[in-house]
Structures are given as structure tokens and as C-alpha cells.
Specification:
Blueprint: E1 8-11, E2 15-20, H1 37-46, E3 53-54, E4 63-69, H2 72-80, E5 86-94, E6 101-110, E7 116-119, E8 126-137, E9 141-148, H3 155-162, E10 185-193, E11 200-204, H4 209-218
């Protein structure tokens, strides 16, 4: 993505949906204030005299669909009904999975260092529900179609790492023996009823080129 070029997937007077590239922060940190998706959307909408409110987030290393609202009412309506929004991801993980389709349920807690881990204590942890289906596999990797029922931080990464099939490129939860250019996790599908117009909106992205290259390379 060019310095200020946004990949806009949908926009109306109430909301805007962006295809976020990997390796881009969502919001500012102490070290980085301006090179964020929020800042880029803010500048874009400022020219239209419109405001911006974050509806959902993706990790810096994850690519794909991110939604922003243009007023606080729309943001609240979307977030209050977020569990009704259908969200699908694709991920490339290490190895062949014994169960080709499964739903992973766990309770997650976050440390002071922003790491998320599993706990058996339902009173302390937040429930995370992650469903997956294997759609393609090679000798080394599996491509998964993932549907999340909850929106917990890092829930896909933690759940897959827990079943010994970490996402390729996940340097946060898995110590890789090989170097990869990116985290192979991509938010590719969203489906929801527009909070104002009630229109059914569906957005689906193609599989990223890097995913195809990795799978083709290992299949030769």
C-alpha cells in the first residue's frame, strides 16, 4: 500500500470498510503515532469533514477487513451486535490436522506484556470460540477457513498454537525455525445487516498472493 493509499472496500455516509495490509498498526503506540490505519482513515475522512470511530481491530501482522464508523451512534450499534456479524479468516498453519473440521473453545487471559494465554478458570478468562475447516493441504502446510464466534484478542493465533498447528509467521506465539515475510492470517469475509439502512452487506476478498505462492512452492 502506498503511503496514504487506502484500499476501500465499501463506503457510505455511515461507515467505511478497508482492506488492511499486513505489517500496519491499527492505532497509535508510544513509538508510532502516524503510520497507522486509523490515522490514514482519519486523514481521508477529514477532507470530507467526517469523523472516524474504530469498530473492529486486527493485529498489526494480520491483513484483511476492518470497519470504521463515521459517528458514535453507528459505532455503538455495530459493536453492540458484533457477535451477530459473520467474520471469516483464512490461515496457513504448520502440518496436517488430524481433525479436518472442528470448533475450539477456550478461556483466554491477557498478561501485562500483551501476551494472551489459555486458562481453565472460566471466571477469570474470556470465552473464545474458533471454528475451522481444512480446505487445502500440502505435506508441510494446511490452509484453513476460520469462523470466529467471539472477538477476543489473538484468539485464532492462540487456539491454533494450542493444538500444535501454529500459524506460519506467528513470531509472537511460536518460535519458527524458518524466516517468513508475514503472518499468514487474513480476514477475508464479513456479512452483516447495516445498522441504519438494514441492508445485508457481504464482502469477500480473494486469497492473498503470498498465500498462493507459499502453498504452490511447498506442493512442488
Amino acid at each position: 500500500m502506498k503511503k496514504d493509499k487506502l484500499k476501500i472496500l465499501y463506503e457510505d455516509k455511515y461507515l467505511i470498510i478497508i482492506n488492511k495490509p499486513n505489517n500496519l498498526l491499527m492505532i497509535a503506540t508510544e513509538k508510532e503515532k502516524e503510520n497507522t490505519l486509523y490515522h490514514k482513515v482519519l486523514l481521508y475522512l477529514k477532507k470530507k469533514n467526517q469523523k472516524v470511530f474504530v469498530v473492529n481491530r486486527l493485529d498489526k501482522d494480520t491483513s484483511g477487513i476492518v470497519m470504521f464508523a463515521k459517528n458514535e451512534k453507528v459505532k455503538r450499534l455495530l459493536q453492540d451486535n458484533w457477535n451477530q456479524v459473520i467474520r471469516k479468516y483464512m490461515a496457513i498453519v504448520y502440518g496436517k490436522l488430524e481433525k479436518k473440521e472442528d470448533t475450539l473453545k477456550s478461556y483466554l487471559m491477557e498478561t501485562k506484556t500483551n501476551l494472551v494465554y489459555l486458562t481453565d478458570d472460566s471466571k477469570k478468562g474470556k470465552l473464545a470460540i474458533t471454528s475451522y475447516k481444512v480446505i487445502y493441504e500440502t505435506d508441510k502446510y494446511s490452509l484453513l477457513d476460520i469462523n470466529i464466534k467471539t472477538g477476543r484478542k489473538n484468539q485464532i493465533r492462540v487456539a491454533l498454537n494450542d493444538i500444535k498447528h501454529p500459524i506460519v509467521g506467528d513470531k509472537k506465539y511460536y518460535q519458527e525455525k524458518q524466516k517468513t515475510k508475514r503472518l499468514y492470517l487474513h480476514s477475508y469475509y464479513i456479512e452483516f445487516n447495516h445498522p441504519i439502512t438494514k441492508q445485508l452487506i457481504k464482502i469477500e476478498l480473494d486469497i492473498p498472493t503470498e498465500f498462493i505462492k507459499l502453498l504452490n512452492y511447498t506442493n512442488k
